[in-house]
Amino acid sequence: MAKDYGDNLGWFLHDVSCADADQIDSNTIDIYGETESGADTSCEVDLRELCGAAHARIKELELDLGLMTIARDQQRELRKSCEQALEQRDSGWNQ
Q: Could you say which of 10, 55, 56, 79 is the most buried, measured as most Cβ atoms within 10 Å of its Cβ?
């Protein structure tokens, strides 16, 4: 199971993409940041774990997008059916 970096995943990936080659030590990189109280902090991130977490998040988002697309399409079909039913009802009243 991939490690979950939570809301930090995008930030960590961005830091890696901006890093100089000499900042990457073997398979890790130090990520620097600040706590909510303003204190400096850092952590060492394993690049393979980070990539695994990114892959898992992308797959999750792709699944969510697929499900939302199906729901949207079903909603459009339902709306179309309702509109047709209303048109039929209304045309029957005009006769």
A: 56
